[in-house]
Input
Amino acid sequence: EPFERPSLINKDFMEFATQEDFEAVLNKHHNIQYVDALFTDLCGYVRGKRFPLLEADKIFSDGVLLPFSAFYLDVLGGVTNTLNLGFTDGDPDGVLMPIKNTIQPVPWDERILQVLISLRKDQEKWGVIKEPSEADPRNILKKVLDRFKGSGFNPVVAFELEFYLLDKERDSKGKPTPAKGTNKTHVYGIPDLDLFGDLFHEINENCKIQNIPATTASSEFAAGQYEINLRHSGDLLKAADDAALLRRVIKETCLRHGYEATFMAKPFLEETGNGMHLHISVYDNNEKNIFTTTSRYGNEYLKSAIAGLQSTFYESFPIFIPNRNGYRRIQARNFVPVNTSWSWNRRDVSLRIPAGSNKAKRIEHRAASADANPYLVLACVLAGLHNGLMNKLKPNNFVNFDNTKGADSEVDDEMPTNLESSLNKFQSSNLLSKYLGKEYLELYTSTKLGEMEHMNSSFIPKEEYDFYL
Output
């Protein structure tokens, strides 16, 4: 029988890159020998498969077979979830399909193209793609985004990522050291950027090559700490793609300049931590910002949005702060979230309304660590946003701009301060279950519990000998 694609093909099929898309990009680049099919796992690591060019066509025709377990590896690369998935289920394969408009050259290797891929549960006869697999964090984000369809609320977001620039060589105790020449703190210091001018220029150029909309760069509150911002976008899946790929670009470019970049939340106990801040606004169907107002503290829409963000704030902490190190960042008087406070133009609150024009009114969500998974962070933020706007919630824990006591002087007793307690809140969250799915909450929790078991049995820290030997 002649091949005919049925009319009932999954509507998401058109979101996939085709062989024609691949060939169009391939024709613009010479010397290509490999294609990397990339995805981001539960912990936020970019992983994938590399195909020789002569075999790369199968990515765009049949998809890529890969075990579901590749999406819930722990940070040490092990399948250590407490549900025993990957063992009791026989470690089955899913089908990874290429995402449209993500075929890009790899700036640091002219022989390679890359494409992002999305996990599907199965591939049936006639090329019909079954439903997205919710082992893929990108599909979890899309699931939350679908809640906004028909609501008249269209979120726009921008990511900001902080990182430390380190020397490749560790000190005598095996601990990291800031890159040479960055032994002083010069927050917003232009000389600190000039010191690594060639490096930051190359990061910027590599972002252009990969269509990552990086904007401003600044030196931060510690020696060797920097921040790079992404332009605001209403394409929220791409915004998360860009955040994941920006970290990859920064790390790879730094390596080629003889340095190491880390997004670890608290690499130095005595210095400020690395955060992933999200700026959020919401537009109506006429492309007007619904937060626009002359009031510094926002209108009813903005206040409902803040209340919604508060509603998922603590319950989302294992997503926002996904490992033990990140909780070291939670300290009073350190410009990091220690409660659910909100205000205008104050960095000591957790939910900040930045100063600026009335038309650019937005909320800055300041909880996440820089090493968190951007897809899952955005999914939890949007879940709260949707809950607040749809139910017209009212915020609490307001802090007046003129308050002189400070908003972060004490850690809220209700706030999780370690991964174990935050996982308990997360797994039992009825609200997040509604948005992310109870199964994913269980999968994420089991992976993180397995990770802690894996880490505890992998080594004995030197300090433990100092304490107990």
